[in-house]
Give the backbone structure.
Amino acid sequence: MNNLRAYSGITTKVRAMQAKLLTNRDFESIANLKSVPEAVEYLRGKPAYTKYINQMDTSLFHRGNVEKILIESLYDDYTRIFRFAGVEQKKFLKTYWKRYEVNLINYCLRIVFNHYDVPFDINYIKGIFDRYSQLAVSRLVMSKNVEELVDNLKGSEYYEPLARVRDSASATLYDYDLTLELYYYSMMWRGEKRLLKGKERELFIKDYGLKIDLVNLQWIYRAKKYYHMLPPDIYSMTIPIQYRLGMEEFKALVEAPTVEEFINQAERTKYGSKMNFGEGQSIEQQYKEILKAAYLSDRRYNPYSIATINTYLFLKEEEINKLTTALECIRYGLSSKETLEYLGGVTQ
């Protein structure tokens, strides 16, 4: 009854927002379009994106600017949910926001490593980061090199792990990416879950435990198949947490001498019936489909809980990822069939 009272309003709000998400048919229609401006005009007719596109001059209808308004729509959705949330729900949303901070740091790392001449345009996100984030966004995006970027993270929780990488010899972009990802998942699992209680904490552990196991499976598979890495190196790049993978199972996966033996070991785990490491759907897409099924199940069985918010944000993020991919495919003149294949299926 307490959850019903606490979540009845926000559940109604999120359901109304979800009704604006794109459908399978929308993605099929977009895949048949011949230019990015055509895709923009299509999105103009969709309630979730109308106001953002109406604010753009038609001369700005190219992929880069469209991606910005897609992200802006996500952050606006987050803001609407946050304003409607109660105290416990806000705790979860503040925890969730850290994913967006990590994404921004990753983007800024690419700016300095790739020596972009023009700083990343932050006008469309500065306001929301100033409101919800611990990061000084303006300083981050103006960093001239990685040393300055890391210094500009002082005062944030991300400074110490990245400073250790900076102070090591010849650190690469991969080293920074890996450190940031390992820090994020470990921090969320060991620290942030303590802020939650009851059903919220139970769902958080389930969702992040699943993510960690699946990310580790992906990383181990890639390390063996594409980079032929040895077990000590694989251990160093995996998240040192297991949820439904036992310690012995995890060890067998990392130390499997061949990709074939890794697949045999993976098929014996609790995820064996859900993942296919052979031909067909990519392992990344399988990861997303498994997560989506888990989130939808959580929401179905716990409609008046944090699962409603968690599921919506996941679906919105996936919609933006698919739209970004579709725009790239249209830009390069791919057929509708090829575009839909790159989307990995559009079932929602």
